[in-house]
């Protein structure tokens, strides 16, 4: 994700080669999560995963942290959601199904465009848009509602009427329950990387981007509204229903041997 590059300086890594070649792995994440969920202060609030850095990056294939995380959430019937570009989520489909049987679970897959030429240059190392949409189909066929975050919509490169129509049509064909557009935003870190990439691959667009993002990290409101309106109209045309789901199911889960029972209270989980 573009915006994830802005997080790396916090870890003393750069937003260019460092983002593409280095990753910090917290191998005790499942154990930390179980401890937090067992705390008397934890209220059972919804936990959103993948909203900052994708939890199904390629390193997850080696470290296998997500099965333990999903198991911990399932054991406590704690609601959660996952946003990912990774098809590796299908490995954990049986666990996700078990969790969805006892708590509210939301899954979204990020697919900003279906243009393969654009994907190869701007999202190297990620599964293809077609592979991601096939993952959506697999999830929905397995009874797991899955929405698509249409992100990023890239100005002047992925926002033509034909490109938007092709993407929404493909999203609809995947069985996605919703499609939500999000225009490219360029926060510090991501902005510098993208500007350099743009200068190399599309130098004629550099000045247009400077004007469009002169006000900060986000595209002008009028542009965002235009894209949102177009995508919503296409979604209606192709029969994609509105997003959203019901409240989390608050049930009592039988305590496992040696495992503490849920307790009321409130705190903010700071796991990853």
N-end to C-end Cα span: 17 Å
Helix residue percentage: 25-40%
DSSP helix count?
11
**Count of extended strands:** 5
Largest sheet: 5 strands, parallel
- Taking pLDDT < 50 over at least 5 consecutive residues as the criterion, the unreliable ranges are 1-5, 243-272
| Apparent shape | globular
Q: Numbering strands along the chain, what is their spatial order in the largest sheet?
A: 1-2-3-4-5
Task: Write down the Rg.
Answer: 20 Å
* Percent in strands: 5-15%
Oligomeric status: single chain
Report the structural category: alpha/beta
- Mean of the pLDDT scores? 86
- Helix and strand string, N-terminal first? HHEHHEHEHHEHEHHH
Describe what is shown at a glance.
By secondary structure, the protein is of the alpha/beta class. The chain is 39% helix and 10% strand.
Please characterize this protein's 3D structure.
It is a single chain. 39% of the residues lie in helices and 10% in strands. It is α/β, with parallel strands linked by helices. Helix 8 links the parallel strand 4 (146-153) and strand 5. Helix 2 runs parallel beside helix 4 and helix 4 (66-75) packs parallel to helix 5.
How are the SSEs placed, and which strands pair?
Layout: H1 17-21, H2 29-38, E1 47-49, H3 60-63, H4 66-75, E2 80-84, H5 93-100, E3 105-110, H6 116-122, H7 129-141, E4 146-153, H8 161-173, E5 179-183, H9 190-201, H10 206-212, H11 221-238
Helix pairs in contact: 2-4, 4-5, 8-11
Record keyword descriptors for this entry.
272 residues, alpha/beta, five-stranded parallel sheet, 11 helices, 39% helix, disordered N terminus, disordered C terminus
């Amino acid at each position: 994700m573009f915006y994830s590059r802005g997080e790396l300086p916090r870890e003393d890594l750069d937003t260019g080669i460092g983002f593409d070649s280095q990753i910090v792995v917290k191998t005790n994440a499942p154990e930390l999560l179980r401890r937090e969920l067992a705390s008397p202060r934890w209220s059972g609030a919804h936990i959103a995963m993948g909203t900052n850095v994708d939890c199904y990056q390629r390193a997850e294939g080696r470290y296998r942290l997500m099965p333990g995380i999903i198991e911990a959430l399932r054991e406590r019937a704690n609601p959660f959601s996952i946003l990912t570009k990774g098809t590796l989520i299908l490995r954990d489909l049986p666990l996700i199904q078990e969790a969805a049987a006892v708590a509210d679970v939301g899954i979204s897959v990020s697919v900003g465009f279906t243009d393969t030429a654009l994907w190869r240059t701007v999202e190297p190392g990620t599964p293809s848009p077609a592979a991601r949409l096939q993952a959506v189909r697999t999830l929905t066929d397995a009874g797991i509602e899955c929405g698509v975050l249409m992100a990023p919509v890239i100005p002047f490169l992925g926002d033509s009427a034909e490109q938007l129509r092709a993407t929404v049509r493909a999203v609809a064909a995947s069985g996605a329950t919703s499609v939500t557009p999000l225009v490219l935003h360029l926060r510090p870190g991501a902005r510098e990387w993208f500007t350099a990439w743009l200068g190399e691959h599309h130098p004629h667009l550099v000045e247009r981007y400077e004007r469009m993002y002169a006000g900060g990290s986000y595209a002008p409101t009028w542009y965002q509204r235009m894209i949102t309106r177009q995508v919503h109209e296409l979604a209606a045309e192709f029969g994609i229903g509105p997003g959203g789901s019901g409240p989390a199911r608050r049930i009592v889960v039988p305590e496992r041997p040696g495992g503490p029972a849920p307790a009321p209270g409130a705190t903010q989980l700071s796991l990853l």
